[in-house]
Design goal:
five-stranded mixed beta sheet; six-stranded mixed beta sheet; alpha+beta
Amino acid sequence: MDRVDALTDVAGLRVGHAELAGDGALTGTTVVLAAEGGAVAAVDVRGGGPGTRETDALDPLNLVQRIDAVVLTGGSAFGLDAASGVVGWLEERGRGVPVGREPGQVVPVVPAAALFDLGRGGDWRARPDAALGRAAVVAAAASEPGGPVVQGSVGAGTGAVCGGLRGGVGSASVRLPSGVTVGALTVVNAVGSAVDPLTGVLYGRMYAGRVAYPAAEVHEAARERLARAARQTRERTAGSVRPPLNTTLAVVATDARLTKAQARKLAGTAHDGLARAVRPVHLMNDGDTVFALSAGDRDPGDLEGFNALLAAGADAVTAAVVRAMLKATGTDGPGGAFPAYRDLY
């Protein structure tokens, strides 16, 4: 099957989104669903204000070896309820950690992480719940294997904001000469910015080779519009949050066979890709969290091969952040004014 340059290039992984409907709602949930049998998983948290669930289970020292799904969600700590809907859906299908004699006696372990988007649609109480989590996992299960990932202001990225610009979901992948695939999915929602203030170029694009710089007058107009939107937002619901709270989330995955310890290393080095694309990053009022999945049985190779895999994970995260910013669409509502990068440049 042809590559789609997304997380789903890692065989067996599917992605589903669901958004909360209704006036004042600007939030949603994204689910990464593994194939039957699950995936080896790990996590690395570097932000100072994380909102997570079941991340301790991913420690290499602990019992659980494989998980069936990862949930990324808006709604801050309230939005972690979305994982309950995914747990229920998996239990109905007998998927999870076996704990009894009967096939259905399982406990699905579903790690989850939440970003802060409260009030960005205008309604402070519009948050993902278990029903929205179920809708997202159903969407993932209904998607085509290896199919494209819907990107932009969708799913967990619906209410995402990065440096005053609307953020969202982005995805990318790298195919190594060895045949190993590494993919990433990010939900970009940062206190820092993805845009160089001196030039208007996305930081992540500076690592992709030569870049075209916006004309000086275009950049100045963009700066003025972004400042005007920030003033408007301060007068609306989202502007009541002081200091601003955010959190960027990511899933990086490979079809190489990794241990939990190796997956943990992959999650850690993937943060380097985030640091290239967003500045500043890993702040106390971000909860930046990266999950890593080993969803295949390819030989990762020797030390040199594993190093290449780690580097590819960081590259895929950087590319996914760029994709998220380019795919996002602007919004202007009761919660705030959040133009998209492509609205300005």
